Amino acid sequence: MDHAYAKVFRGAAFTSKTPQEVDALKDCLFCLDADGVIQRILKPLDPDYGTTLAAYSGTDKFHELAEGQYFLPGFIDLHIHAPQWAQAGTVMDIPLHDWLDTYTFPLESKFSDLDFARKVYQDLVATLLANGTTTALYFATVHKEASFLLAQICADKGQRGLVGKVVMDDWEQNPAYYRDESTEAALADTESFIQLVQELNKTTKQGVYPVVTPRFIPSCTDEALAGLGELAKKYDTHIQSHCSESDWEHNYVHERMHKSDTFALHEMGLLQDKAVMAHAVFLSDADAELFAETGTAIAHCPISNVFFSNGVLPAARFTQKGIDIGLGTDISGGFSPSLFDNIRQAVIASRMLEEGVDPSLPASERGLPHSRISANEAFYYVTAGGGQSLSLPIGRLEKNYIWDVQVIDVNAPNAKLQIFEEAISMEDLLHKILFLSRPENIREVWVQGECVHKRL
Ligand SMILES: [Zn+2]
C-alpha cells in the first residue's frame, strides 16, 4: 500500500469521456502527488479503497466532500481580453470596427499605467477563480510591462494563466496613441516578454505561459506576422489571434491577402497544435480542414458572437471534422466572466442555428440541420476540449491529469438547487448544475492541487 500521496480527495465527480458522453464517478478517492497530479482514482469496489481511506481519513491530507457537493473539472477560458474587464457589460450595440476605435483601443491604451492595470487585473483574476475558471488564455495589451504584470498576478493568485502581449504594429490601421512603435519593437518586446514569462514559470507551481499574440491580421504587417510565427517556433510557445470573426474582418483579410484568414495565418507559421484562434465563425470547408490538419483549435465565444460576429459558429459540424474546440468568454465582446453562462449560450445558439430564426420562412428552409450541441458537448468544450486545445493535461479527472477542480454545492446558502426527485440520474444532476448554478454554488476552487478560492 502506498502512503506517499500528498493529498487524497473523496467525493463524487463528473468528467467527460467523449464529446457526447460524461462519466459520473461516485464516492471515489482521488490520490494526488506533490505536484498536484492525479496518480490514482480508486472506486469503492477497488481492493485498495478501504486501506487507503483508513490511512488518510482524519489526516490533514484528506479532503472529503459534504452531502450535495460534487467535483467538476476547473473550467478553461480559451479567449479573454483582460484589460476589457474594465468595460464589461457596456457598449454592446455598435459594430466591431467602431467598438474597437471608439471604446476599446482608448481603454486598452490606459494600461501603460501599471497602477490602473494592477487594479483591473487583480479584480479580474479573482473574479474568474470565483467563477470556477482555473485556466485562462489572455490577451493583455501592447504594453510589455503591464502584460507581464498580468502573468505575475496569475502566478500569485494560483491561476494557470497563458498571457499574450498584443502585437499591433501597422501604422495605417492602428491609432497613433495605441500601437507598437515599430515592427522591430513589436518583435523585440514579444521576445523579451516570452523570456520573462518563461523565467517566471520556473517558480510557478501551476504554470504561466507566454503566448505569441498578433491581435488579428488587420492590425499587423506581414513582416510582424511572419516574425511572430518564427518566435513561436523558436521558443515553442502557444499562439492566439482572431480568425474570420465577422463579415468586416473576414472580408478585410480577403481584400488585403487575396485569401482567407486561415490560409494567411498558416503561411505566416501561425497555425499549429498550440494555436488557438478566436471565433472562426466564417471558416470555409478548406479552412476547417486546415484547422484539423494543423491541430489548431477554435475558441468558441457564443455570447460575444451574438453581438459582434454576424453569425453562429457551426460547432457541431466542426467537432465532427475533428477540430479541437473550447469555450471563451471574450470579455468584453461577451459581457459575462462566467463560463457557465457561455455553456448555456453555446447550447442555445446551436439550437437557434439548427431551427433558424426567421418565422416567415417555411420550417424546412429556416435553419441548418444537425447543428445542435448537447449540454454534454458544451461541458466537454469547457473542460476536456479546452485542455486538448492548449495541449495541456487539464480538463479531465483522470490519472496523470492535473487536479484543477471546482466544488459545486447544490445546497449552498441562498442558492439551493432544488432536487425534487430522489432518484435523479447523475446526468440529469450535472445538467441542472450546468444550467442553474450560480457563483454562490462554487464553494471551493483548486488549481494544481492547491486551494485558490473558498466561499464560506
Ligand atoms: Zn477577442
TrEMBL record:
Keywords from the UniProt entry: Hydrolase, Metal-binding, Zinc
EC number: 3.5.4.3
Biological role: Catalyzes the hydrolytic deamination of guanine, producing xanthine and ammonia.
Swiss-Prot/TrEMBL GO biological process terms: guanine catabolic process
Cofactor note: Binds 1 zinc ion per subunit.
Organism lineage: Bacteria, Bacillati, Bacillota, Bacilli, Lactobacillales
Family matches, as PANTHER family: GUANINE DEAMINASE (PTHR11271)
Protein name: Guanine deaminase
Native species: Trichococcus pasteurii
UniProt catalytic activity: guanine + H2O + H(+) = xanthine + NH4(+)
